Amino acid sequence: MISMTRRSLLSFSVLLALFGLALGIFTLSAQDTSKRGRKYKAPPPTARIEVTVLNHYTGKPIENASVVFHPMQGEKDEGNMELKTNEDGRAIIDVLPIGDTVRLQIIAHGYQTYGQDYKIDKDQIAIEVRMKRPGEQYSIYKDHSADKKEQNPQDKPQDKPQQ
């Protein structure tokens, strides 16, 4: 009696395993995974942009200058990416897509801020920026009589229009 129970249990488990295998194969073939989820879209080709920041007068590199990239979509700014220059005055970025326009802004302590728009049309671009020291500010408290003597008398506006 024990052997008969064992035999029926064995045959039942084999039958159940075959049924599970057949059901698994059927359900796998029924799933069409090509229409599920989002389609993969390859990223656009990017450019490698190397910015070198130098002192205008000495030509020495400016270390730790902020190099800010503003990707532009038409006239709209799409955020920014900021890098710092290394000891050679260089900052390198390689994530900007070819064909875009980028607004480059450079801020360095003790220098005038630089800003310029660039069209990314090649896969490698090298940009050299020479930073100048800030100019003297105009003050109303200073004597500017030397400046007035240089002004042409023809440039002075007339008090009353002649009729």
Short description:
It is built from two helices and eight strands, in the order H-E-E-E-E-E-E-E-E-H. The chain is of the alpha+beta class and 163 residues long.
Topology:
Elements lengths: L1 H29 L15 E10 L10 E8 L2 E2 L3 E4 L5 E8 L3 E7 L6 E6 L4 E8 L13 H6 L13
Parallel strand pairs: 1-8
Antiparallel strand pairs: 1-5, 2-3, 2-4, 2-6, 6-7
Descriptive account of the structure:
This protein is α+β, with helices and mostly antiparallel strands and 163 residues long. It is built from 2 helices and 8 strands; from the N terminus they run αββββββββα. It has a domain at 46-131: Immunoglobulins (Immunoglobulin-like, Sandwich), CATH 2.60.40.10. Strands 2, 3, 4, 6 and 7 form a 5-stranded antiparallel sheet that branches. The chain has a 3-stranded mixed sheet with strand order 5-1-8, with no helix packed on it. The protein has helices at residues 2-30, 145-150, and strands at 46-55, 66-73, 76-77, 81-84, 90-97, 101-107, 114-119, 124-131. The protein is rod-shaped and about 125 Å long. The mean pLDDT is 83.
How many individual β-strands? 8
Oligomer state of the chains in this structure? single chain
Distance between the termini: 135 Å
Spatial shape: rod-shaped
Bin the helical content.
10-25%
Please state the second-level CATH architecture of the domain at 46-131: Sandwich
In CATH, the homologous superfamily of the domain at 46-131 goes by the name Immunoglobulins
Keywords:
Immunoglobulin-like, about 160 residues, five-stranded antiparallel sheet, three-stranded mixed sheet, alpha+beta, single chain, 2 helices
